[in-house]
From TrEMBL:
Protein name per UniProt: Transposase
Species this protein is from: Streptomyces chartreusis NRRL 3882
Lineage, opening ranks: Bacteria, Bacillati, Actinomycetota, Actinomycetes, Kitasatosporales
Domain Insertion element IS402-like positions: 22-77
Annotated region (Disordered), positions in chain: 104-126
InterPro entries in the cross-refs: IS402-like_dom (IPR025161), Transposase_6_like (IPR052909)
Composition-biased stretches (Basic and acidic residues): 117-126
Pfam families assigned to the protein according to its UniProt record, in alphabetical order: DUF4096
Length: 126
């Protein structure tokens, strides 16, 4: 992470633990590395090795949840794009427009009804 992104993350996250009781909060950079490690490798949060120094998997998961709820990821994305534009390193010729998260107003074809899985009744002989 560049110095600009690291400071942006600290400013955007608002974490610092000032005035909160309990254990001292883990450094945002370490937690970010833990989050990226889990997302990159696909391991379960509880399997994050403590030896790596990222904190526990639950700590990383909670921080991810809190940052997501606070809109940190969207703002971090905007900061990253601004830094890339300022450095003339943003290549829009390779951009992908993805609308998979936007609801289709007219909708697609209706799915066929699910077939019954129970056995058919035998015909009556009376």
């Amino acid at each position: 992470m560049s110095c600009g992104l690291e400071s942006s993350l600290c400013c955007l996250s608002g974490s610092g633990g000032i005035g909160t009781p309990g254990r001292r909060a883990l450094d945002d950079r370490k937690v970010m590395c833990g989050i990226l490690f889990v997302l990159y490798t696909g391991i379960r949060w509880e399997w994050l090795p403590a030896e790596l120094g990222f904190g526990s998997g639950m700590t990383c998961w909670r921080r991810l949840r809190d940052w997501n709820n606070a809109g940190v990821w969207q703002r971090l994305h905007e900061v990253l794009l601004a830094e890339l534009r300022a450095a003339d390193r943003l290549d829009m010729s390779r951009a992908v427009i993805d609308s998979s998260h936007i609801r289709a107003l007219k909708g697609g074809p209706k799915p066929a009804g699910a077939r019954s899985t129970e056995a058919d009744r035998a015909p009556s002989t009376t």
